[in-house]
Amino acid sequence: MAVPTFVDRVALHIAAGRGGNGVASVHREKFKPLGGPDGGNGGPGGSVILRVDPDVTTLLDYHHSPKRRAEHGGHGAGGRRNGTHGDDLVLPVPDGTVVKQPDGAVIADLVGAGTELVIAQGGRGGLGNAALASATRKAPGFALLGEPGDEIEVVLELKVVADIGLVGFPSAGKSSLIAAISRARPKIADYPFTTLVPNLGVVTAGDTTFTVADVPGLIEGAAEGRGLGHDFLRHIERCAALVHVLDTATLEPGRNPVDDLEVIEAELARYGGLDDRPRLVALNKVDVPDGRDISGMVVDELRGRGLQVFEISAASGEGTRELTYAMAEIVLAARAEKAAEVVERIVLRPKGVDGDEFTVRKTGAGWRVRGVKPERWVRQTDFSNDEAVGFLADRLNRLGVETKLLELGAEEGDAVLIGHPDDSVVFDFKPGIDAGAENLSRRGQDERFQEDRPAARRRRDIQESMPERGETETRADVARRLDQPEKYGPLAYEIGSDDDPDASDVPARREEDPGE
């Protein structure tokens, strides 16, 4: 099987890196039993970037390797250590690459060295429990998962960026003309379809330098797929002008330059989008006696149609200088009309749901919730952790999802689906508040640090009793008397004094504080 050397259209599967997971960790150190949360965040996944590289002229690499994936982000760790960032994957593409969806919709047109397109955004890293801690949730026992990166199917099409496009029948001499006016050395032979790929040549005329593209030969029906023209007509879309290379010495019966011109123009019209391009006509092969005679018979007719006509010979070089200067005039005029373009880094981001932050609608499967935030929060939730699920419910409630569901008539036990129909998570609706009832606590809240817990009350009682202690009494003594008042009695006396009836029963004073 022949190995292609020029590829101008490929289908590519691209996947960005997944974000790393956050971690739930508690700081542990001697004499610090409540060191607090110290779980680090996960690192973001790498993005996939298409970048125009002037040194790349074909999409051949992606023809052989059509699946590309960026690096995943690293997971977080204890000690507030965040995960590593996944490296971006930069894919070099030729100048003039058009990025399309599989259905043909254009995503971006990459023209100009250095132009970039973030075609797939890396997933965000999940937050660790240190980042999730707050005044009311001081020690979260959960962390958020990393988000998956974007995954997309795209089609890359190359449209050669050239100032002048040469069009004509096979063997009309287009490749020979490029070889005569530039340093390009395309394959040349005396049989049809010698040119199988577009050839580019750099031409200098006076102070003007421009590029000329030789498009594989067109025949009648090329716009419908006959011959090679159907695959390569797009390569002349960017040209500022078209040059008809007409064969004046063809050996095929029934052909003449005027008819060839009309056939090619008809194919260009069927393809569409090229009516506004200036045309030049090059009557080639006038070095052949019959060719010069035929050229003399049609030149006046072509000029009568308002066309600039040049009688040339790509073999001997006759007339090529005048043709290149005419090309240069058109290129300069086109460049003057075209405003200077600033090369920008194009960023493609997923489109959110139109309208508000979320939408709710009733379907046959249940109440479907769509929105950027709700869907992202669901992806970040570890459903094996009850506290994490409670945190998700709390976020959805604050966003107003539950209120919206109640307004639309949702009842407890109804199915609630969050996400795309092909990948949604189903919940049983259980509102956090009943109509007219008070919500006493937030779901997923850590109750260990509430001010009314026993340990907190005990420390508060000890602190309030400190002013009543004796002169030699320590905080530990106050704690013991509060814990066992029947043994140590009230606090309004000095331990070990003559007023103490059970001074001998008081244990020796210790420096450590059991209440701490």
UniProtKB/TrEMBL annotation:
Domain OBG-type G: 162-332
InterPro entries: G_OBG, GTP-bd, GTP-bd_Obg/CgtA, GTP-bd_prot_GTP1/OBG_C_sf, GTP1-OBG_CS, GTP1_OBG_dom, GTP1_OBG_dom_sf, OBG_GTPase
Primary location group: cytoplasm
Keywords from the UniProt entry: Cytoplasm, GTP-binding, Hydrolase, Magnesium, Metal-binding, Nucleotide-binding
Record's compositionally biased regions (Basic and acidic residues): 440-486, 507-516
Residues in Obg domain copies: 4-161
UniProt cross-references to Gene3D superfamilies, sorted A to Z: GTP-binding protein OBG, C-terminal domain, GTP1/OBG domain, P-loop containing nucleotide triphosphate hydrolases
EC number: 3.6.5.-
Domain OCT: 350-431
One Pfam family this sequence matches: MMR_HSR1
Stored SUPFAM superfamilies: Obg GTP-binding protein C-terminal domain (SSF102741), Obg GTP-binding protein N-terminal domain (SSF82051), P-loop containing nucleoside triphosphate hydrolases (SSF52540)
Assembly and interaction partners: Monomer.
Name of protein: GTPase Obg
Organism of origin: Nocardioides bizhenqiangii
Gene field: obgE
